[in-house]
Amino acid sequence: MTTAWRVLLGARKYWLQLGIGFAGVVLATIAGFYLPWALRSLTQLATEGSSQFAAEALEIGLLLLGATCLQAIGTSLAGYMNHYAALHYVADLRTRLYSKYQQMSLRYFHRSRTGDLTGRVVNDAMEAEIFIAHAIPDFIINGLTFIGVGILLLTINVKLALISLITIPLLLAITVWQSKRLSPLWGENSKARGEIAGKVQENLSGMKEIQIFNRQEEERGNVSRLAMKHTKT
Question: How many angstroms from the chain centroid is the CA of residue 160?
Answer without folding.
Answer: 32
